[in-house]
């Protein structure tokens, strides 16, 4: 099937490109049972939570509404697919089916309601043909609905309702009930963010019904609770949470010191922290990690009591993910009793490393250098909780004049 890309009547090509099993930065999204409009802007709001969205193309194929979404990194796309596949955008409808596309990148020629290149805001809008306008409208109407007899200025205006007042009034009570709230999965990811698409409740209707399209609060901040007040310090939190992303700021709450806010440089990093650290046992307490309602962590104002509980790490040399496309993204694992050690100088022996851990109160159960690369090794401790403590203490431990140990969690044991 030949598809029209970006609203050009003269440029026709097949953009689907097929799918594959291997992770890729381009996702193909099929939306099933679409009783409520899912616009390009809604898709952006959903996927932006997992990383930087570069481009989106939407289209109709086989009577289903589909989209291609390109993120900046394959890891972000992998996270998005794991979290969103088979989830409903709205209660009871608009189910996301997500696969990896074979396409390495998307070629977007026009910025309008069918396609968008977020890296190039200066692209022309392109005029949509009547056929394309009708295609967009029909894609966003309930099954069996008649097309409304009016046109849409898609190329020149922000997205508005795809449903005419007479169409909206005809929606069944079951459909309205199903669409009356965001699905529990998506609402649990964050509070309503306000996309400004209230036009889905057309003026002139007396029903008072509204389709919520306020999906996700995109935040780089996580709230950590149930911490051990005596042992949780900003530096310890920075090091532990830094395994999953570049921590910019840490704030332990002054009036509730078993709670802390941690700000990452990217929302996808916050999502990784939630995925891997929520409900882990640390200092004999099961900590909770969730998305925060805050979008930034504020430094204390001058004269405000803080007692050193808020720290800025924006310029820390210990960030693991500063380089775009860092390989560290592909080696992120949940806490385990086996630690991955790296940046080991060739002169350092197994005995030296084991003694360094022992001197700090951590007795290794097993140790193994990588066969082909003695810059890396695995070190096993008694349990996960002890490994968490050891990572916090031993990460950046000085091994030689210009060599500091790098510690992360290992995928496998020894």
TrEMBL record:
Q: Where is the RRM domain?
A: 27-103, 220-294, 337-412
Q: Which GO terms describe its biological process?
A: mRNA processing
User: What InterPro entries is this protein classified in?
Assistant: HnRNP-L/PTB, HNRNPL_RRM, Nucleotide-bd_a/b_plait_sf, PTBP1-like_RRM2, RBD_domain_sf, RRM_dom
Instruction: Enumerate the UniProt keywords alphabetically.
Output: Phosphoprotein, Repeat, RNA-binding
> Per the record's keyword annotation, is Repeat included, yes or no?
yes
Annotated GO CC locations: nucleus
Q: Could you give a GO molecular-function term held by this entry?
A: RNA binding
Q: Name one Pfam family in it.
A: RRM_5
Superkingdom of source: Eukaryota
Record SUPFAM superfamilies: RNA-binding domain, RBD
Q: What is this protein called?
A: RRM domain-containing protein
Naturally occurring in which organism (per UniProt): Mesorhabditis spiculigera
